[in-house]
Write a structure and sequence with these properties.
The protein is α+β, with helices and mostly antiparallel strands and about 525 residues long. Helix content is about 25%, strand content about 25%. The strands form four sheets. Strands 10-11-12-13-14-16-15 form a seven-stranded mixed barrel. Strands 2, 4, 7, 8 and 9 form a five-stranded mixed sheet that branches. The radius of gyration is 35 Å and the shape is elongated. The N and C termini lie far apart (about 150 Å).
């Protein structure tokens, strides 16, 4: 009997040793990222998809929570500084999307990082295999890296720009190459521009933005111009002239920056990005309700224009042309047109009248004489005969106010060229230009010119050094530009004769010639003006 009980209890004890079922918790074994590289635009976000094994593993992925278990770590074991983990969302069983946000700290970076998840209740973590996070900040391709900012313009569907009248929609962005502020991609509208220059192979353009923006550090505006400077072997005639203008008392002279232009993905050479002549508080600053901006140009292609028969006639009996640039064509009223015409003609009539020298009743009542002196000095110093032609010659005024000369514009054709203006070797080229033929008959005007010349001499003498700076700045870009364009082709628009005379020189030879011509002219004018 005892043996039976013993066997019973042995069987019972064996049954108690049978393993009980264990409740298994999900374990995080590894993190799998689904890309080797992520690019983030400045200030933008990018998505990183990843999965976890075990898919049922639960963790806190709320990045705004202090208990968040997800993080990024770089090779040094620290959190990256140029971007952050902005959010994490679950997109499926064991599948997640992490959003990385660029913090706009550095423009260029490339990091090897890992995604980590801290284990629940433990001090350890599981991390992914490494992947690269880099900025997609545009770096100029070494094929045409020149040290100049790069303007990228793309028309919608890469449509070619074939018209000076019809704007095409597109986008513009600018890489300031850390010398100037960048312009992030914005909508723009672009078309061709120019008269003769539009017919040459390298085209000039004008583009406008939907809202005013500062471009390359220049004051905010919507409208900007890209000058091709096709015929200028030095690529600096406009730059130097605008620089000189800004040293004078002229109310406003356009600011400009040389750039590389990439149009619809194709590098098309060096351009001069310059402020367009417009009425605005940051440009021609006149009363928008009572102000007028006029252009005298031999092309006579403004919609609202007339010819003043008071003054030096410029071609076969035709006299000075005046065209209305502001108010804009769509806003100009007949009353405003009549006022502008009558005011200009009245000023010219007084200038050519018997009492023109009278400081109270003469031309000084109508003209801002200081501006006319400085305007003339820049044209004469730069050897620009367009003041006599005239071409792209501007003035502006407000109702009841004085007529102000300027702003300066269009200094690529014939500037400091003995080929275009051989008389520049020995004398004045604009002393008899438009109204100046009469102004120089007044001793008071002559006296003011002489005084102003002496005041500006230090600035005038510094220009050759500025030219040398420009040559150094532009030399790499010029080399690329002239591989694409031959300025000697400007002869096709000049009866088969090249225009500036340096088109077949090298860039360096042309720069040396420009400096030499300037220095010769400075010496000559100093003598001529002092002996007026």
């Amino acid at each position: 009997m005892h043996l039976v009980f013993a066997l019973f209890f042995m069987l019972l004890a064996g049954g108690c040793n049978k393993p009980e079922p264990i409740s298994e918790e999900p374990v995080l074994n590894r993190i799998l990222v689904q890309t080797d590289m992520i690019e983030i635009a400045p200030g933008e976000m990018a998505e990183l998809k990843f999965t976890v094994e075990d898919a049922d593993y639960s963790f806190n992925f709320d990045v705004n929570s202090g208990a968040c278990q997800v993080y990024l770590v770089n090779q040094t074991g620290k959190a990256p500084v140029n971007y952050k983990l902005s959010s994490v969302k679950q997109s499926g069983e064991g599948t997640y999307s992490a959003i990385l946000e660029d913090l706009k700290i550095e423009k260029i970076y490339s990091d090897e990082v890992r995604l980590g998840i801290r284990l629940t209740g433990e001090s350890s973590s599981i991390v992914s295999t490494p992947f690269t996070v880099k900025s997609n900040y545009v770096v100029v391709d070494n094929e045409f890296k020149t040290g100049l900012p790069v303007v990228y313009i793309n028309t919608n569907n890469k449509a070619p720009i074939t018209s000076k009248d019809v704007y095409l929609d597109g986008t513009v962005s600018i890489n300031g190459i850390e010398e100037y502020p960048d312009l992030e991609e914005v909508v723009c509208h672009i078309k061709g521009r120019g008269n003769t220059t539009w017919s040459w192979p390298k085209k000039p353009y004008v583009f406008k933005l939907d809202e005013k923006k500062s471009v390359l550090g220049m004051p905010k505006h919507k409208r900007w111009i890209l000058l091709a400077n096709f015929l200028d072997r030095t690529m600096m005639r406009n730059m130097v002239s605008m620089h000189l203008g800004q040293k004078t008392s002229l109310a406003w002279t356009p600011h400009c920056v040389p750039v590389e232009l990439v149009l619809n993905g194709k590098h098309v050479g060096m351009y001069l990005l310059i402020e367009q002549v417009r009425v605005d508080k940051n440009r021609v600053n006149i009363n928008e309700d009572k102000g007028y901006l006029l252009e005298s140009d031999f092309h006579y292609d403004n919609k609202y224009q007339w010819k003043s028969y008071y003054g030096k006639c410029w071609q076969m009996g035709d006299c000075i042309p005046f065209g209305i640039k502001y108010p804009d064509e769509e806003d100009l009223t007949q009353t405003q047109l009549n006022y502008a015409k009558n005011y200009i003609d009245q000023a010219a009539k007084v200038l050519y009248g018997a009492d023109f020298k009278d400081p109270e009743k003469g031309y000084a009542k109508y003209l801002d004489v200081q501006s006319y002196v400085d305007y003339w000095i820049v044209f004469e110093m730069m050897g620009n005969h367009e003041l006599s032609n005239p071409g792209s010659v501007y003035c502006h005024f407000e109702e009841g106010g004085k007529i102000v000369a300027g702003p300066l514009w269009d200094f690529d054709w014939g500037v400091l060229s003995y080929k275009t203006s051989p008389q520049a070797k020995t004398g004045f080229i604009n002393k008899d230009a438009i109204w100046y033929a009469r102004l120089f008959k007044d001793p008071a005007f002559v006296d003011l010119v002489q005084k102003r010349w002496n005041e500006l001499l230090p600035e005038l003498r510094a220009i050759p050094d500025y030219m040398s700076e420009c040559e150094k700045l532009l030399e790499r870009s010029a080399a690329k530009n002239f591989q694409m364009w031959n300025p000697a082709e400007d002869a096709s628009q000049n009866g088969g004769s090249i225009i500036n005379g340096d088109e077949n020189m090298t860039f360096h030879e042309a720069c040396v010639t420009l400096r030499s011509n300037y220095s010769e002219r400075l010496t000559l004018l100093d003598k001529l003006i002092k002996n007026l």
